């Protein structure tokens, strides 16, 4: 049985897109032996089983420029290499500090998969120092995974390594999205809470690249009897709330899996206003599509977002940062029940065809076996 060591930033129950991707891979491939090392959301280091898999969560001292700082990560990674002796390291990037430790400790006989979730787009100052190390990682990698073909052409770091690249889409965790019997009551309560009005929904981290300020600029231009529900939290939450006085905008905070599922099925349109290539794919977008929601997105050149949701088929795509166009697209969907339901049905079909973990299982099995045998 091949032994795989995974390094994401965090791991469930911590919430996040990369975390969900890593969790899906570990879950769908029980024929391999998995260990995960990641950051913890507290200062203590924990080494324990989670859903039958050993997870080493390294204590974090603080965060700088969105990077978790952990001094124990080096010691724990060295110990795992010594004790576990993995055949393959599946490393999720970007993750600069872990990259430093990795290049100091990675044994020569361990195969390296770089799962390239995104270029480093916004931290330009930090990237100047990290770029040489990134080049070493790309040179050392046996295989580089990207989440969409669209992302490759716009990525300068990947331009010299196309012979190593393989595209495997991110996937949704269908188990947490399949409706439960009690959801009928809960979704009814959500609709009643908002007075039976149409629900325009979005969720995720409240950070700059999610484009939520442009969504709020669109709110006064959205016609019809609708509410805008912005779930999630982050460093911009209070600023977003302070900038919005519209009575039909709600911030319910972070939702657990059951609450999120019910909100998705209670909603009518999904809003996904991300604006930069930091949003390389959009797992939240794929989850909403799985639940039958048409999406309104901005055009993000060389990002996978506009491949996940297809303009005119599963939703409507408008010019980047164009709040008026965003409102116009929403108004079009609100005023045309047939169009909205048709795009929602197309979205659900696309998600089930391309974005379920079972759809990529064979590719992952072949990947692990092929690089493990070279």
Mean pLDDT reading: 93
| Oligomeric status | single chain
Strand order of the largest sheet: 3-4-2-1-7-8-9-10
**Terminus-to-terminus distance:** 16 Å
Strand-pairing-aware structural class: alpha/beta
Low-confidence stretches: none
Description of the molecule:
The chain is α/β, with parallel strands linked by helices and 374 residues long. It has two domains: 3-171 and 357-372, 3-Layer(aba) Sandwich (Rossmann fold); 174-354, Rossmann fold (3-Layer(aba) Sandwich), CATH 3.40.50. It has helices at residues 17-28, 72-84, 96-105, 124-140, 149-153, 183-193, 212-218, 237-243, 257-266, 283-290, 305-308, 323-335, 337-354, 357-372; strands at residues 3-7, 33-39, 46-50, 53-58, 62-64, 67-69, 88-93, 111-116, 143-146, 165-167, 198-202, 226-231, 249-253, 269-272, 295-298, 315-318. Strands 3-4-2-1-7-8-9-10 form an eight-stranded mixed beta sheet, with helices on both faces. Strand 14, helix 10 and strand 15 (295-298) form a beta-alpha-beta unit. Helix 2 packs across helix 3, helix 7 (212-218) crosses helix 12 (323-335) and helix 10 crosses helix 13. The mean pLDDT is 93.
Topology record:
Elements: E1 3-7, H1 17-28, E2 33-39, E3 46-50, E4 53-58, E5 62-64, E6 67-69, H2 72-84, E7 88-93, H3 96-105, E8 111-116, H4 124-140, E9 143-146, H5 149-153, E10 165-167, H6 183-193, E11 198-202, H7 212-218, E12 226-231, H8 237-243, E13 249-253, H9 257-266, E14 269-272, H10 283-290, E15 295-298, H11 305-308, E16 315-318, H12 323-335, H13 337-354, H14 357-372
Parallel strand pairs: 1-2, 1-7, 2-4, 7-8, 8-9, 9-10, 11-12, 11-14, 12-13, 14-15, 15-16
Antiparallel strand pairs: 3-4, 5-6
């Amino acid at each position: 049985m091949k032994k795989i060591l995974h390094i994401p930033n965090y791991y469930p129950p911590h919430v996040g897109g990369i975390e969900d991707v890593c969790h899906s891979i570990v879950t769908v491939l029980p024929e391999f032996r998995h260990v995960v090392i990641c950051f913890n959301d507290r200062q203590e280091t924990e080494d324990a089983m989670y859903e039958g898999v050993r997870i080493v969560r390294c204590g974090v001292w603080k965060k700088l420029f969105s990077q978790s700082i952990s001094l124990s990560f080096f010691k724990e990674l060295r110990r795992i290499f010594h004790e576990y002796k993995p055949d393959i390291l599946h490393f999720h990037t970007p993750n600069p500090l872990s990259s430093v430790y990795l290049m100091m400790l990675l044994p020569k006989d361990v195969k390296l998969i770089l799962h390239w979730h995104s270029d480093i787009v916004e931290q330009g100052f930090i990237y100047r120092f990290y770029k040489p190390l990134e080049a070493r990682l790309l040179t050392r990698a046996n295989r580089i995974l990207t989440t969409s073909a669209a992302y490759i052409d716009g990525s300068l770091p990947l331009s010299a390594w196309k012979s190593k690249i393989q595209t495997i889409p991110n996937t949704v965790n269908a188990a947490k999205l399949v409706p439960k019997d009690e959801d009928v009551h809960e979704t009814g309560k959500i609709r009643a809470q908002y007075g039976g009005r149409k629900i325009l929904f979005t969720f995720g981290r409240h950070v700059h690249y999610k484009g939520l300020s442009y969504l709020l600029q669109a709110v006064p231009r959205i016609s019809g009897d609708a509410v805008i529900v912005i779930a999630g939290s982050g460093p911009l939450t209070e600023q977003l709330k302070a900038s919005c006085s519209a009575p039909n905008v709600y911030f319910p905070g972070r939702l657990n899996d059951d609450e999120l599922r019910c909100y998705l099925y209670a909603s009518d349109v999904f809003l996904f206003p991300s604006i930069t290539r930091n949003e390389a794919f959009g797992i939240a977008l794929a989850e909403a599509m799985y639940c039958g929601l048409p999406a309104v997105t901005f055009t993000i050149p060389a990002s996978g977002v506009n491949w996940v949701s297809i303009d005119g088929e599963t939703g409507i795509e408008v010019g980047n940062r164009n709040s008026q166009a965003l409102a116009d697209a929403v108004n079009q969907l609100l005023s045309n029940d047939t169009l909205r339901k048709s795009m929602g049905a197309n979205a659900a079909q696309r998600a089930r065809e391309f974005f379920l973990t079972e759809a990529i299982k064979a590719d992952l099995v072949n990947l692990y076996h092929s690089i493990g045998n070279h």
